[in-house]
């Protein structure tokens, strides 16, 4: 009998995870089977995520250094850099616009009011975050002692330091040839370890989903159902229709080809709710399955994992309008424009970890005078919504790599391409 491929095993793992989670969730709260199931899934899921985080920083650092050095050498850095940022901005703007239009049309908070959630908000104090504080925190966080940022997995600061090292390697020329070779070899080595970790992915993903499904509070779905449906709907429209259409128009890669190459990363993002933890898998899929050149994937994917979050941006905009509904405030066009920009900025600032969007959302709410405490209402349903938005965040990075590769290829006829 032929053994199913890793991709199929991962999908089966996800399916079993959901089914088992439903089964466990249905058991009595004090049942020992339920407790044993919880422990087992916490440990197995924790090991999988821990292994991914173990390789994250070395992979991130080496991939950017090698990517930047090669791009600089071939004088393509400028074009890659510009097209990456343009794509990230346009796709996030489309996501937020979609969220604003859909939430205005469906107004999921209509007929509800803040008083209904007084209990949830009673003991909750949101950390206030002004726009100034946010920017200074964000900008100062970019430049850090590299050992601190490597040790703390401060992804954005690692990206910045690696960019400097990559550029210095090219300027230094042949003098630093050995260091570049070392970085290339280190990258290959870590990717080999990622390949081993992926063998555990079906079990890790199953365990993460068992716990997620079994711990959902279904009673909340009745009161928050409409809002959840709107958010899930917008996220799906963006992830299943808009991003694949842009990809097809620019690169002629069909949605099916993309899904086949990207699904390991999409399912991992769904189960872990963390773009950072998924990064090793995203890089592997982008290079190995979607055939994006190493130097382009090595630059676009790590940068995207920290700044390009379409799913988070659309969620923040939609949630702000929902809370305005609850408070009974009608946001005018100017205020909605503020939400539009703030949602994009807040998603850029959100780190790729579970529920990070909730923290930066405080800023979006405050910018139009909405109560930050209202976040307490969204927290119980966040883990569930985070699954899909993280998958779309990661999808945007892979789509971006393919598009940037196409732009660089077509604008430089002589450029080499592995596609
Ligand atoms: N969990 C998301 C990510 O890692 C961030 C967020 O929206 O909370 O991409």
Task: Show the helix and strand layout.
Elements: H1 6-26, H2 32-73, H3 77-106, H4 118-122, H5 131-142, H6 146-151, H7 155-172, H8 177-214, H9 219-251, H10 255-272, H11 275-289, H12 294-307, H13 310-327, H14 333-349, H15 356-367, H16 375-411
The chain binds aspartic acid.
Aspartic acid (ASP) is lined by residues 273-275, 309, 312, 350, 352-357, 386, 389-390, 393.
Gross morphology: globular
Helix content: over 70%
Structural class: mainly alpha
Element order, helices and strands?
Answer: HHHHHHHHHHHHHHHH
Largest sheet: none
CATH architecture annotation name: Orthogonal Bundle
Question: What do we call the CATH topology?
Answer: Proton glutamate symport protein
Beta-strand portion reads under 5%
Number of strands: 0
Q: Ions, cofactors, ligands: which are bound?
A: aspartic acid
Q: Count of helical segments? A: 16
Would you give an account of this structure?
The protein is built from 16 helices and no strands. It is mostly helical. It has one domain: Sodium:dicarboxylate symporter (Proton glutamate symport protein), CATH 1.10.3860.10. It binds aspartic acid (ASP). Aspartic acid binds next to helix 15 and helix 16.
